[in-house]
Specification:
Glyas_Fos-R_dOase_dom; lyase; alpha/beta; four-stranded mixed beta sheet
Length: about 190
């Protein structure tokens, strides 16, 4: 592995003090949380079905001013915006047999890894399972699989891993309910 691939803290024995220098003259950001990820799709319908049935997302209304085919989904405090492919846009490697945890991916924290693994098996979705950090006494289970367009998804119990800021404890903002949009309840009558 090259020098640029090493962990910032372990690189040449750098400690917390050296890492904290990265934050000098960097103002606090007014950011609250990750709002959504956007995914380009070959078929919005197939992707909606996947994100609803496999991951439990809920379809929400999109602003009427959006004049392109797509769908918005929401759950777990995050949105997934699906956009219909227009023309020759490139997709990631859609080969379901190639599951590389180092590929770009989005990750969802899970409270019951066994239930999620059963769901993937029941739906016949090819996945890769691994456990990391066992030696440190806080094992993290991970499941990797792809959506219909080849985008990698990880499911993990990452809460087992301690969040240890490197020289920036005062900069960490943990999400609260404040960043979630208000929920409107409507009763639809047939």
């Amino acid at each position: 592995m090259g020098e640029e691939g090493k962990d910032l803290l372990s690189e040449h024995g750098k400690g917390e003090k050296e890492v904290s220098q990265i934050y000098e003259n960097v103002p606090r950001m007014p950011l609250m949380a990750l709002n959504h990820v956007s995914r380009l799709c070959k078929s919005v319908k197939a992707s909606v079905e996947f994100y609803v049935k496999v991951l439990g997302f809920v379809v929400i209304e999109r602003p009427p001013s959006l004049d392109f085919n797509g769908a918005w989904l929401f759950n777990y405090g995050i949105g997934v915006h699906l956009v219909q492919k227009q023309g020759d846009e490139q997709f990631p490697d859609a080969d379901p047999n190639r599951l590389d945890p180092m590929d770009n991916h989005i990750s969802f924290q899970c409270e019951d890894m066994n239930a999620m693994e059963r769901r993937l098996k029941d739906m016949k979705i090819k996945y890769m399972k691994r456990t990391i950090n066992e030696e440190e006494g806080a094992p993290i289970d991970q499941l990797f699989f792809k959506d219909p367009d080849g985008f990698m998804i990880e499911i993990c119990n990452c809460e087992n891993l301690e969040l240890v800021p490197a020289g920036a404890l005062g900069r960490i903002k943990l999400p609260g309910d404040r960043h979630n949009p208000p929920l409107q309840m409507r009763i639809l009558l047939d």
